[in-house]
Amino acid sequence: SSSKVIVVDAGHNYGGDDGAYATHGGITYCERDLNMQVAVKLQAKLEAKGYTVLMTRKPSDRETVPVTQSLTNRVNMANNFGADFFVSIHHNTAGSAAMGVETYYSSAAQDADFGGGYSTERLAKSKDLAAAVSSNIASAVGTNNRGARDSKFKVVKNTKMPAILIETGFITTPQEAKRCADSNSQSKVAKAIADAISVRY
């Protein structure tokens, strides 16, 4: 696997592409920060398996560009790297009882701005990995497996390589927010993702 390059994308930034927030019991959970905490752990797990990992943003970054530019930058970075795989880390929001992990891939062709490409092989690999990652995470942390889902999210639609976007849990649900912020649980999530990737790449 040493020749494989994986882009790990910690979703959102510090302004124009700010992520979700939720407050429970006086504690505010910030998606942007949780995304980075998991992404850094995933980087370490993948590097330990011999992959080259490129991060779309680093813990010290304080970028505040608007959402469209932020997403475009992430896609261009992955495409310009010539990466073998792209994984974007996010945390979900819904009602106060939603639980579980869901992982997205895209069956849509690229937007014209990104070349309009379409690959059945890319779709098959993305869909397969999305299902495996979702199952692995659910088993690792004991939450619902909400499965692999098709979406037109910009970062999974427009990257040239197989790509998934993982919603690792719902921060709007108190017990799941606590789980998402727990370092040990984050490590389990990161291991689950890395293990699913290493079986396939």
Written account of the structure:
- Helix content is 43%, strand content 22%.
- With 201 residues, the chain is an alpha/beta fold.
- The strands form two sheets. The protein has a six-stranded mixed beta sheet, with helices on both faces. A two-stranded antiparallel sheet has the order 2-3.
- A hairpin with a 2-residue loop joins strand 2 (21-24) and strand 3 (27-30).
- The longest helix has 22 residues, at 120-141.
- The termini are close together.
- The model has no long low-confidence stretch (mean pLDDT 96).
Task: Fill in the keyword field for this structure.
single chain; alpha/beta; 201 residues; two-stranded antiparallel ribbon
**Element-level helix/strand string:** EEEHEHEEHEHEHH
Mean pLDDT: 96
| Helical stretch tally | 6
Strand order of the largest sheet: 4-1-5-8-6-7
Q: Which shape, going by the Cα principal axes?
A: globular
What class would the helix/strand composition place it in?
alpha/beta
Query: Per DSSP, what share of the residues sits in E-state strands of 2 or more residues?
Result: 15-25%
Instruction: Indicate the low-confidence ranges by residue numbers.
Output: none
What does the largest sheet look like?
A: 6 strands, mixed
Rounded radius of gyration (Å): 16 Å
Distance between the termini: 7 Å
Portion of residues in helices?
40-55%
Number of strands: 8
Briefly summarize what is shown.
The protein has 201 residues and is of the alpha/beta class.
Topology of helices and strands:
Blueprint: E1 5-10, E2 21-24, E3 27-30, H1 31-48, E4 52-55, H2 67-81, E5 85-92, E6 101-105, H3 120-141, E7 145-150, H4 154-158, E8 163-170, H5 174-181, H6 183-200
Parallel strand pairs: 1-4, 1-5, 5-8, 6-7
Antiparallel strand pairs: 2-3, 6-8
